[in-house]
Design goal:
Blueprint (H helix, E strand, L loop, with lengths): L4 H14 L3 E2 L24 H4 L9 E9 L1 E2 L2 E2 L13 E10 L4 H13 L10 E6 L11 H10 L6 E4 L1 H4 E3 L4 E12 L17 E14 L5 E14 H8 L12 H11 L16 H20 L8 H17 L4 H15 L5 H5 L1 H20 L3 H9 L1 H5 L2 H17 L9 H9 L5 H10 L6 H21 L9 H6 L8 H9 L2
Parallel strand pairs: 1-2, 6-7
Antiparallel strand pairs: 2-5, 3-4, 5-11, 6-9, 8-9, 9-10, 10-11
Helix pairs in contact: 3-4, 7-10, 8-9, 8-10, 8-12, 9-10, 9-12, 10-12, 16-18
Bound molecules: adenosine-5'-triphosphate (ATP) and magnesium ion (3 copies).
């Protein structure tokens, strides 16, 4: 029988709970302890201060299924979404942690035992493991200990592969806790030996689980200091695990996504999702299905956690791309399709993330509000734009989201009636960037075709200032039940309420 997403998640939690791990509820996707981060992008985020030694160790061992979003910063998978089978904007990361308790040997054994035993029963002949091969420039020795552990566990030599800093040395950022990691990869095609596909961005052989051995603190000057305490920090993509356990080569063919596709087909009357990619997806319909389902999940989860488009550029981009994609299926009323899909999210997350189910009204409110803003922008479009585009095929070639922003930016620019060949005022460039989502390169291109100039260094500086301001805004807007530290978080689970949002939202809207 086929295991459902809910069973697969529960199996993971139950397994680690039976190994004395304390189950920790997912933290909200809006980071509660790190204003420099737009979204939580890994299960360890909520334990960052524990690793840094700034907070005491909450429990010896923990596990959870963390809501993660990767649409910006160090981890940005936005451009892959829709095009591949295994990257999402929103996904769940199953994780287990040891806080100065067990280390490499037990971590590897726990992981291997879970995935190769019942009920997961993954064929070991489809698995590869990787370990850190060392780095001379950092004076880091190869992690042969981990290699030995895998051999002892019984993984054949040819399935244990060394990789360097990029793949197998995990770092939080430029400085902070870090250490070698070991990863488990899965071959979707079969049990033949295909080590050359590991870590090569192939949909046929994908990364499944990362086990990080947090052993060092990287100082600002780059030196590595061994930590007094050691930690294990792991992350396995739930959707990827579900795909392979359900015998699917694509995450989108699992019960995590099918309900969205069914709803889209039913509401739009379009032909069903048929799983085509790239040039085989001639009309781009299946790609649109994937983007819409993915973005609906992300948008629902983020808004339910009180992230709002006015304070999150990432959320605004995903909402706009979502509505735009939904317009393909439901011309003129894409937003209502998005609202319907948020209900699918509410249903499918009801057991694990009830905050989504409980905040459907909030999600609809924000989606419709964003859509109104969007319609206003569209209403401003004038014929001049079409003429401009004819002379400048480059504009045509920009992505949909950017060209919507371009049209608005173009109109805004015209309204200013600036003398030709002048440098665009800094405030106008910021409007292009912040309100209409253009990146500096596109702003420069727009200026060029309209016979203006942009002071790019100035714009870059302004963007940084704006980001700082937004961060401050995000921080002060967290006047809900935000825990002061990890301990408080664990003992006092955060759940946004329906009523608190409106004051919050109104305050941050202009
Ligand atoms: P990849 O190399 O496939 O992009 P990663 O090395 O960036 O993955 P990690 O930062 O090691 O990923 O995160 C741990 C696990 O989370 C991965 O092994 C993978 O199973 C899962 N994961 C990472 N990014 C995504 C994503 N965008 N969508 C779904 N699952 C993901
Ligand atoms: Mg990645
Ligand atoms: Mg990787
Ligand atoms: Mg990885």
């Amino acid at each position: 029988s086929i295991l459902s997403t809910n069973t697969i998640r529960k199996t993971f939690i139950d397994y680690f709970a039976s190994e004395n791990h304390c189950y920790i509820k997912s933290s909200p996707v809006k980071p509660f302890n790190d204003p420099s981060l737009e979204f939580v992008n890994a299960g360890m985020n909520q334990f960052k201060n524990v690793f840094l030694g700034l907070e005491g160790i909450p429990v010896a061992k923990a596990c959870n299924s963390q809501k993660c979003i990767r649409v910006g910063g160090k981890h940005n998978d936005l451009d892959s979404v829709g095009k591949d089978t295994y990257h999402h904007t929103f996904f769940e990361m199953l994780g287990n942690w040891s806080f100065n308790d067990y280390f490499k040997k037990e971590a590897c054994k726990l992981a291997w035992n879970l995935i190769t035993s019942k009920p997961y029963s993954i064929d070991p002949n489809r698995l590869y493991v990787t370990y850190f091969k060392g780095d001379d420039s950092l004076n880091l020795l190869p992690d042969l200990e981990t290699k030995e552990i895998w051999l002892e566990i019984g993984v054949p030599k040819h399935r244990i592969l060394p990789f360097g800093l990029k793949e197998n040395f995990w770092e939080m950022g430029l400085h902070g806790p870090c250490g070698p990691c070991t990863e488990i990869h899965y071959d979707h095609l079969g049990s033949a030996s295909r080590p050359h596909l590991v870590n090569k961005d192939s949909a046929d052989l994908t990364e499944l689980w990362n086990n990080v051995f947090v052993q060092f603190n990287r100082l600002e000057d780059g030196t590595l200091i061994p930590l007094e305490k050691h930690f294990v920090d792991t992350g396995m993509g739930l959707e990827r695990l579900v795909a392979l356990l359900q015998g699917k080569s694509s995450n989108y063919d699992t019960d995590s996504f099918v309900p969205y596709f069914d709803a889209i087909a039913k509401i739009s009357g379009f032909s069903k999702y048929s799983g085509k990619f790239g040039f085989e997806d001639e009309k781009g319909l299946d790609t649109a299905y994937r983007i819409l389902a993915d973005h609906s999940r992300m948008v629902s989860v983020a808004i339910a956690d009180n992230v709002f488009p006015d304070e999150s550029h990432g959320l605004r981009r995903v909402i706009r791309k979502g509505i735009l994609t939904a317009e393909k299926f439901s011309p003129g009323n894409g937003v209502s399709l998005m609202v319907e899909l948020s209900k699918v999210a509410g249903e499918s997350f009801s057991h694990i993330f009830p905050e989504v189910t409980n905040n459907l009204r909030q999600i609809e409110f924000v989606l419709r509000d964003e859509n109104e803003l969007w319609q206003e922008i569209k209403a401003k479009v004038k014929n001049d734009w079409e003429n401009l585009k004819k002379d400048n095929p480059y504009l045509e070639s920009l992505s949909d989201v950017q060209s919507k922003g371009l049209i608005s930016s173009f109109n805004e620019l015209k309204d200013r009636k600036l003398p030709p060949k002048s440098v665009l005022p800094a405030d106008l460039c910021l409007i292009f960037y912040d309100r209409y989502g253009l990146n500096p390169q596109v702003i420069e291109e727009l200026a060029r075709v309209c016979d203006y100039f942009v002071n790019i260094p100035q714009l870059q500086k302004d963007i940084l200032i704006l980001k700082e301001k937004n961060k401050a805004l995000i921080h002060t807007s967290q006047k809900l039940d935000i825990p002061k530290n990890t301990l408080e978080y664990i003992s006092n689970h955060f759940l946004p309420t329906d009523d608190s949002f409106k004051a919050n939202y109104t305050k941050n809207s202009d």
